[in-house]
Amino acid sequence: MPPMKKPEPTSEDLTEEMEAFRKYLKSRGFRVTREREAIAECILRNHDHFDVDELFMSLRSKTPISKASIYRAIPLLIRCGLLAEVYLEDGHMHYERVYGRELHSHLRCVNCRRIFEFSAPELALVEKRICRQEGFKSDGYKFEIWGLCSNCQDKKKKD
Predict the structure, then answer these.
(1) Fold (topology level) of 11-97
(2) Edge-first strand listing for the sheet containing 115-118
(3) Mind listing the pLDDT tens digit for each residue in 45-79?
């Protein structure tokens, strides 16, 4: 199964996502600030997995912003449905933009740390079956396989 190609967000997507974020903030009594908008826009333009440090470095070159502002904005973006926590590595949570994207899972190479995305519709069927059996209401699932990618396997064979 080849890794999924991530769709490039269009300016139309970005406009829709930013408007969804603004509506979410207003509906919950939060202010729409320049900092929150800058953080959201930077995240929504990102096509890869990232952590707060990477986001901070990207934002810092464009606008003065604190890590505290980023840490406060991330839960809002998650609850709004624009962002998801993906995995914890070296004490840092990694995130990805999810709005309008197909549900997918991850293969994570423990050697080179690359992440490969894949779609497996049968996982949704397993989720439904298990929840039905257990009388459980799901809010979603994460599925991750970790191991060695083909490049790292080849390197180990040569060593």
Answers:
(1) Arc Repressor Mutant, subunit A (1.10.10)
(2) 115-118, 105-109, 144-147
(3) 887 888 999 999 999 888 889 999 999 999 999 99
